[in-house]
């Protein structure tokens, strides 16, 4: 029978000012004394011979049966292992309560709060084998608990909460201590007894502000768009399908940031100072929603409506050289300069946001350990115990189940390598399929180029606006049909990894979209500008981009409502299958990137095009979600989409945004604006608006002389542009190298931990062999290596750098130091 343990914590009191905060040295004394207490308890347990299993009659060297594949140790070795601190810490709950009772006594005397955050990790008690009670007297533990409650009542509120949070006890016991530490009359005793009215009022205000802050934070968290819908999608269909909707949400944020400066500095200002109407006002017929022309032409939606004058208060005199002379005291607003700089600043904000999002996503998805070793964490630590509603718990259950399927599928995929013949066959099929896909892309590109030339040479008729929908219809049909052909050819490849299959599909769809957009950019800036001399070609390009966006949206709705729905009915009714079509991630993501590219291309010619894109994304989210829930099923082969968000943002940055920036720079620096409309009608290029403004500032005087200097050295000088580009690339490169370095260091640390575990096994085996040779009468001598091992473990836990466990010179370990 185990003897009752006497738990005594001998902590020397410090003399001096009782109101001073304890120093780090004193804190370390407290924690070292607690650690010494645990070691003494461990030695007593070892001395009294803690029996893990009852001994059978026989010699003292009898070994216990172990599971198959595990070594069998003698009873003496098991006693030594049981006396190790890692297996005895936290067994006695009375030791923990006694420790914190003594600490609260000291704190009440000194009226200061301990720095529990600075506690040495090795000195913190653990709760391993928590329910093994070594103290047979429960009354002594209850007495210590009551004493601890009384001492907690003597502490201030903040210090009491801090102490309770740091106790290594269960939540139920912490809750019991917190409830019983309140005085019966609701008054808490401070240093001098009860609180005064001012103190109670101050505490009430602090608690009210704290509750208000928590309420606002929870409200902001609950106000996030589609929060529950995204959880539901991720729970039923996995992270692969969820990545599409998260990418759609990201695009919504980008367009909102792009629209805000355009509304504030362009659309709102021009609407406040409308120009004189240049022709008859057209009535709304409804066809404008498809074509973008008609009554929409002479509105703030298109480039041609914006004036080339300096907007201010009503004119005080007549026009002078196309400029309205401002009244004295009025603030002029140069619309050409505002148009150019607002579009530039909006794109700069988008670029910064895009680069930040890409770097943040890269750090989140490519960190080491994102998919390795998290099976146990997913099983034991994924459930949120704050969930109380039945519907929310069902969503969380589905999410955890789907996450486990993805992790297991990713783990099993690495266990199935393919043979040499299979690889050769797959390479041949890949080459043939890629040739067919590239040929299809080339054919679609030639078809778009030929049809656009035919539209230019076609004579104008009375139904010209309706005929202009022909080119968007042809492009949308090709963009809808070619991905289905790519998907059919992809079934011949039979990729082992579903992730690789999605990446290949994304590459093929991306090549198709970028080739078609390249032909269209040549059509707009190369052919249409030449054929529309004397007309407002900027309005035509803006209307053309609006038509492309509307027709692409209609085809997306048609594909979701009819394509997936019809295939579901055919599969269920005619083919008698229970399988539904899977959600095509590659095609839908490339459709989003295609629509966003059209929006960026049209910002210069239609400032309200981001608002159209926002409405399009909102409708598209709900339509795609409804179609997904009704007509689609989860992927048959689950896969973990840990890098998909980074891939999507990368594709949005380099092919899409970079190509758009090249297109707009060419339009601003090289193409001559229309002479009949727009804010740049009297200039040779749009860029000259800034040059004219700088020259005007030079004529003003020396007060604004620094602005021309900045324009000359930062805008006109290409060295600054190359410097900024080099710095941006350097930052991206450094981020990549930092992440790679962290991955390498973590891999080395994991390997070192594995080697240390093998070293411990080696030492235990050596300990067992020494005992077998020395006999049963030398148990105390066999305890010495265990104590040495414990001391080394303590040294390793207290050291800052990596620590290696090495063996004695007579029995070296097979594993050397790592890295």
Automatic annotation (TrEMBL):
According to UniProt, the name of this protein is Transmembrane channel-like protein
GO BP: any one term: protein stabilization
Q: State the organism's lineage.
A: Eukaryota, Metazoa, Chordata, Craniata, Vertebrata
Spell out the residue ranges making up region: Disordered: 798-819
How this chain sits in the membrane, per its record, is: Multi-pass membrane protein
InterPro entries for this protein: TMC, TMC_dom
> Where is the protein found, in the record's own terms?
Membrane
**Ranges that cross the membrane:** 201-223, 244-273, 337-357, 424-449, 469-490, 502-525, 545-567, 646-669, 718-736
Q: Which UniProt keywords apply?
A: Membrane, Transmembrane, Transmembrane helix
Q: What is its main location?
A: membrane
**Gene of origin?**
Tmc6
User: Coiled-coil annotation: which residues?
Assistant: none
Q: Which protein family is it in?
A: Belongs to the TMC family.
- Cite the GO molecular-function annotations of the record: mechanosensitive monoatomic ion channel activity
Q: Compositionally biased, Polar residues: which spans?
A: 798-811
Where is each TMC domain found? 536-642
Entry keyword Transmembrane helix: yes
Q: List the record's Gene Ontology CC terms alphabetically.
A: endoplasmic reticulum; Golgi apparatus; nuclear membrane; plasma membrane
Q: Which organism is it from?
A: Nannospalax galili (Northern Israeli blind subterranean mole rat)
Supply the PANTHER family for this chain. Answer: TRANSMEMBRANE CHANNEL-LIKE PROTEIN 6, TRANSMEMBRANE CHANNEL-RELATED
A Pfam family of this chain: TMC
């Amino acid at each position: 029978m185990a003897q009752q343990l006497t738990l005594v914590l001998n902590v020397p009191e410090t003399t001096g000012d009782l109101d001073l905060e304890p120093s780090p040295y004193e804190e370390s004394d407290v924690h070292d004394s607690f650690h010494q207490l645990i070691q003494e308890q461990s030695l007593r347990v070892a001395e009294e011979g803690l029996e893990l299993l009852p001994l059978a009659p026989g010699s003292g060297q009898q070994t216990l049966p172990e599971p198959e594949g595990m070594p069998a140790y003698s009873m003496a070795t098991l006693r030594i292992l049981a006396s190790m601190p890692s297996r005895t810490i936290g067994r006695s709950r009375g030791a923990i309560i006694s420790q914190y009772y003594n600490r609260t006594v000291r704190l009440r005397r000194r009226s200061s709060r301990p720095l529990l955050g600075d506690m040495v990790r090795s000195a913190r008690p653990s709760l391993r084998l928590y329910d093994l009670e070594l103290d047979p007297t429960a009354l002594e533990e209850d007495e210590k608990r009551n004493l601890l409650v009384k001492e907690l009542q003597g502490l201030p509120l903040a210090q009491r909460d801090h102490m309770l949070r740091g106790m290594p006890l269960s939540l139920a016991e912490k809750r019991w201590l917190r409830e019983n530490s309140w005085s019966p009359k609701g008054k808490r005793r401070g240093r001098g007894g009860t609180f005064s009215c001012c103190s109670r009022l101050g505490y009430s205000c602090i608690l009210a502000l704290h509750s208000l802050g928590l309420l606002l934070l929870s409200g902001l968290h609950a106000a996030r768009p589609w929060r529950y819908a995204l959880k539901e999608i991720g729970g039923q269909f996995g992270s692969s399908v969820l990545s599409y909707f998260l990418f759609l949400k990201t695009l919504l944020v980008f367009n909102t940031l792009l629209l805000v400066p355009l509304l504030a500095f362009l659309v709102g200002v021009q609407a406040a100072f409308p120009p004189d109407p240049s022709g008859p006002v057209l009535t709304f017929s409804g066809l404008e929603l498809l074509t973008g022309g008609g009554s929409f032409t002479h509105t703030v939606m298109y480039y041609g409506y914006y004036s080339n004058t300096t907007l201010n208060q009503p004119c005080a005199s007549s026009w002078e050289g196309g400029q309205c002379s401002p009244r004295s005291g009025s603030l002029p607003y140069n619309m050409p300069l505002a148009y150019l700089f607002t579009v530039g600043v909006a794109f700069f904000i988008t670029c910064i946001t895009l680069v930040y999002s890409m770097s943040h996503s890269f750090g989140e998805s490519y960190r080491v350990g994102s998919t390795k070793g998290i099976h146990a964490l997913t099983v034991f630590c994924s459930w949120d115990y704050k969930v109380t509603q039945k519907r929310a718990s069902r969503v969380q259950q589905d999410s955890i189940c789907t996450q486990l399927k993805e992790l297991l599928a990713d783990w099993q995929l690495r266990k199935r390598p393919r043979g040499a013949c299979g690889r050769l066959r797959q390479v041949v099929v890949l080459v043939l399929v890629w040739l067919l896909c590239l040929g299809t892309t080339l054919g679609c590109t030639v078809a778009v180029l030929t049809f656009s030339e035919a539209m230019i040479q076609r004579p104008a008729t009375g139904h010209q606006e309706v005929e202009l929908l022909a080119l968007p219809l042809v492009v949308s049909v090709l963009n809808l049909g070619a991905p289905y052909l790519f998907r059919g050819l992809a079934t011949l490849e039979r990729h082992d990894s579903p992730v690789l299959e999605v990446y290949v599909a994304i590459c093929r769809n991306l090549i198709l979209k970028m080739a078609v957009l390249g032909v269209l950019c040549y059509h707009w800036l190369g052919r249409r500008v030449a054929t529309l001399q004397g007309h407002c070609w900027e309005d035509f390009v803006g209307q053309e981009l609006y038509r492309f966006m509307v027709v692409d949206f209609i085809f997306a709705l048609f594909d979701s409502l009819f394509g997936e729905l019809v295939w579901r009915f055919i599969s269920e009714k005619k083919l008698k299958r229970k399988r539904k079509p899977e959600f095509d991630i590659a095609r839908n993501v490339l459709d989003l990137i295609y629509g966003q590219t059209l929006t960026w291309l049209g910002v210069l010619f239609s400032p309200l095009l981001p608002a159209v894109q926002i409405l399009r994304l909102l409708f598209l989210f709900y339509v795609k979600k409804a179609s997904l829930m009704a007509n689609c099923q989860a992927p048959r082969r689950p896969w973990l989409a840990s890098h998909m968000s980074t891939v999507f943002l990368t594709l949005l940055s380099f092919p899409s945004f970079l190509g758009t920036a090249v297109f707009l720079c060419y339009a601003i620096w090289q193409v001559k604006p229309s002479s009949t409309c727009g804010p740049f009608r009297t200039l040779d290029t749009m860029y000259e608006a800034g040059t004219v403004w700088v020259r005007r500032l030079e004529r003003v005087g020396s007060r604004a002389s620094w602005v021309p200097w900045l324009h000359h050295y930062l805008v006109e000088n290409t060295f600054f542009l190359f410097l900024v580009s080099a710095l941006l690339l350097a930052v991206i490169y450094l981020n990549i190298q930092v992440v790679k370095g962290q991955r390498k260091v973590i891999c080395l640390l994991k390997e070192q931990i594995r080697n240390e575990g093998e070293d411990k096994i080696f030492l235990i085996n050596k300990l067992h062999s020494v005992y077998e040779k020395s006999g049963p009468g030398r148990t105390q001598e066999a305890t010495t290596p265990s104590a040495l091992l414990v001391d080394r473990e303590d040294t390793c836990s207290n050291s800052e750098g990596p620590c290696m466990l090495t063996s004695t010179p007579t029995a070296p370990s097979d594993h050397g130091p790592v890295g």
